[in-house]
Amino acid sequence: MNSKEDIRPISYIKAHAAEVLAQVNETHRPVYVTQNGEAKAVLVDTETFEKMKKALGLLKLLAQGERNIAEGNVIAQEDVFATMERELGIDDE
């Protein structure tokens, strides 16, 4: 959190929604919304949100790959390429 502007009570958000959205979209910094003094939500711009979703997707793929390696569920690279060439009808000539 960079400043007091990044933490706002819900009452402020209700009264100044357009201003807060403009701030979020301009700065690309999240705004933490508080209720009764506790952080309850985070507002982010759509570009940042989409980047976060993509990053999480990549992290999930990496975690699955690491799990497959740990379980020995792997195929040698040469076997993968040989299967692909066979399926596609590609000769080594």
TrEMBL record:
Transmembrane segments: none
Pfam families per record: PhdYeFM_antitox
Domain of life of the native organism: Bacteria
SUPFAM superfamilies: YefM-like
Signal peptide range in chain numbering: none
Function of the molecule: Antitoxin component of a type II toxin-antitoxin (TA) system.
NCBIfam families per the UniProt record, alphabetical: phd_fam
Homology family: Belongs to the phD/YefM antitoxin family.
Name of protein: Antitoxin
